Amino acid sequence: MSELGDVVVLGAGLTGMSAAYFLRKGGHDRVELFEKEASAGGLVRTLTFGDYQFDYTGHFLHLRDDEIKGLVEQWCPGDFERVVRDARIHSNGVFTHYPFQTNLHGQPLEVVKECLLGYIAARARDGERPADAPAPTFEQWILDGVGEGIAKHFMIPYNTKLWGVPLSTMTTDWMNRFMPQAPIDKVISGAIGLTDDGAGYNASFLYPRRGGIQTLSERFAAHVGPIELNREAARIDTRARRVEFADGHAAGYERLISTLPLTRLCDLVVDLPAEVRDARARLRSSSVWSLLLGLTANHTEGRHWVYVPEESYPFYRAGCFSNVSPSMAPPGHSAIWVERSYNDDRPLDADAIRDATIDGLKRMGWLHDESEIAVEQQLRIPEAYVVYDHNHAAATATIHAWLNAQGILSTGRYGQWNYSSMEDAIIDGRRAARELLGVAATPNSTAAGADLK
Predict the structure, then answer these.
(1) Which range marks the domain in which residue 119 is found?
(2) Same-domain check for residues 409 and 432
(3) Both 378 and 433 in a single domain?
(4) Quick one: 332 and 344 in the same domain?
(5) What is the CATH number of the domain that holds 381?
(6) How many domains does the chain have?
């Protein structure tokens, strides 16, 4: 058994369950895993309304790490199947293949011309930025990388809608594998109709045959050991090393692993020093509003999701769960969702946005008449997208340094305050456990970087 003392893990999403599992697997049984909800999984969960099922917006599994692949294969035998992505762009009244920059064919000819000339000009400028120049903003990176045409017609409007902030205020620290550059031959080929559907990190993915993405959470929960449900942390005293819960329960710890949003964790700590409070105040994020619709028809032409860059549409993405897994809706029906970001600078009027969304789906062709709506639900995901502005790196470093000194390891997508995938969440939990146990990182891990898809 490890000499490590009592460990408390807050949050039984994928990161928290992974941390508890790898601690216990490493021989440490003095672990308590707490979850505020009545079931484990965090945002990796599925909602059921009548005959329709919806995930907490798009959650599609990509695996690169050998050990995580092994766990999924062992714990979920036969549950998942590999799906080849069918993703499109809807703009200028047409659907074109994704990614935009390598599938320009089908856009108006003037748009294709503008995008090609801009891309060629951007490639001609490669290497002009001085080595000692400041790192580009996200907006400048787009312009440098794909040129003014592709930036204007897709990259800037789409990402502005998704992140909910001006891209000139963002850094590129989050990007890694999520924004690969396209070679010029691929861009030209896509402009003349040689489609390139296989580009990007999510060209294919794993998804449950039935039950939605919550299947993954349920299988993990069955293997990680005891989880104390309905326990919401209400107060953390770092001097006493004690967590108090809303129901009056309390737990002492030597080390605390938190997967809560970093903002929420800071707000729970009663003895947070002024400089850490100031850093917490500089953290920014955008939340997501989603409309879930169970429809008695299916007008989606089999597409999994569609990116919608134009400002005249209130949502940045629409998707159809039942095209990914037919079990999510009755035959001939569809379970669809749309997403819109909001924040303090871009407030949400849910009633107005709902009506504009219905109109947008009609214009896009996914809804013909409101009489087709059998189920309608609204969903909100607070702090869904962490904003990588120019305060992000320094603010998170200040907070994590202080927390670590108090025996608190804040990890996972929201605990680290980053942009990452489901597999990354599992890896983060493993890394946290092994850090506490003093175990070296797994040498065959191929995961890198950071995706609420």
Answers:
(1) 100-191
(2) yes
(3) no
(4) yes
(5) 3.90.660.20
(6) 3
**Helix/strand/coil for 437:** helix
Hey, how many other C-beta atoms are within 10 angstroms of the C-beta on 37?
A: 15
Q: What is the pTM of this model?
A: 0.93
Nearest partner of 240 among 261, 210, 266, 271, judged by Cα: 271
Burial of 384 (0-12, 13-18, 19+ CB in 10 A): buried
What pLDDT is attached to residue 25?
Answer: 96
DSSP state string for 114-161: HHHHHHHHHHHTTT-S-TTSPPPPHHHHHHHHHHHHHIIIIIHHHHHH
- For residue 359, give every residue at least 6 positions away whose Cβ sits within 8 Å of its Cβ, in sequence order, or none: none
Residue 354 in tokens:
């709902």
| pLDDT (0 to 100) of residue 176 | 63
First to last CA, the chain: 39
Residue 164: name the closest of 448, 389, 376 by CA. Answer: 389
Residue range 29-62, pLDDT digits in tens: 999 999 999 999 999 999 999 999 999 999 999 9
Q: Is residue 78 situated within a structural domain?
A: no
Give the contacts of 107 (CB within 8 A, at least 6 positions apart): 91, 92, 94, 96, 115, 153
- Opening angle at CA 449, ends 445 and 453, nearest 5: 110
